[in-house]
Amino acid sequence: MRILLVEDDEMIGRAACAALRAEHYAVDWVRDGEAAALALRAEAYDLVLLDLGLPRRDGLDVLRGLRAAGSAVPVLVATARDAVADRIAGLDAGADDYVVKPYDTDELLARIRALIRRSLGQAEPVYRHKGVSLNPATREASVDGRPVALSSREWAVLEPLLARPGVIYSRAQLESKLYGWKEDISSNAVEVYVHGLRKKLGSDLIQTVRGLGYVVPKT
């Protein structure tokens, strides 16, 4: 999954990036509101982690603009503004959840997982399909109850496919889950990871739709 981190504090931003990448999220980090608005117009994200007190453009204004444009991407506001009125303003502007700094990293990650599940229409915290199980909270995968070790890149490819059976993801869409802006993308990266997943999880779990991309069939 790909996350846009909007945070102007260098120390907090670095810590958040490290925590998110340790959980196998692809992360793009911007440090002001104008850069955030540009990134949101240019890229598709699975979640936005948004500070409010930003240079150049306030976070609430970024959020209102995002919702006015019709985007339903989950937004988790993370800010030092801890007054009740500030929390209400953030939620009324379109935020899906709100945490106050300094936040506990484990709680932050749990809230992110919950928001992503909700955006995918997934109530259960574990993805299950045809004997394959993925637990985003524990990063455990299994086939018919047998644990399977997945690399972070394999996980990044499999999670969106397994979370939405029947939805075709193009190679470009899957690449966006794998890499942030400054990371090099090999021309056959997705194919390599899909091949590895088929060997570990079964050749019929992920199917190629010629000319379109990849899908985990519903049935």
Characteristic terms for this protein:
219 residues, alpha/beta, Rossmann fold, Arc Repressor Mutant, subunit A, 8 helices, transcription, phosphorelay response regulator activity
Could you describe the 3D structure shown?
- This is Response regulator transcription factor.
- Keywords: DNA-binding, Phosphoprotein, Transcription, Transcription regulation, Two-component regulatory system.
- This protein has 219 residues and is α/β, with parallel strands linked by helices.
- It folds into 2 domains: 2-119, Response regulator (Rossmann fold), CATH 3.40.50.2300; 127-215, Orthogonal Bundle (Arc Repressor Mutant, subunit A).
- It is 41% helix and 20% strand.
- It contains 8 helices and 11 strands.
- A 5-stranded parallel beta sheet has the order 2-1-3-4-5, sandwiched between helices. It has a 4-stranded antiparallel beta sheet with strand order 6-7-8-9, covered by helices on one side. Strands 10-11 form a two-stranded antiparallel sheet.
- Helix 6 (152-163) packs across helix 7 and helix 6 (152-163) crosses helix 8.
- It is globular.
- The two termini are 24 Å apart.
- The mean pLDDT is 90.
Short description, anyone?
By secondary structure, the chain is of the alpha/beta class. The chain contains eight helices and eleven strands.
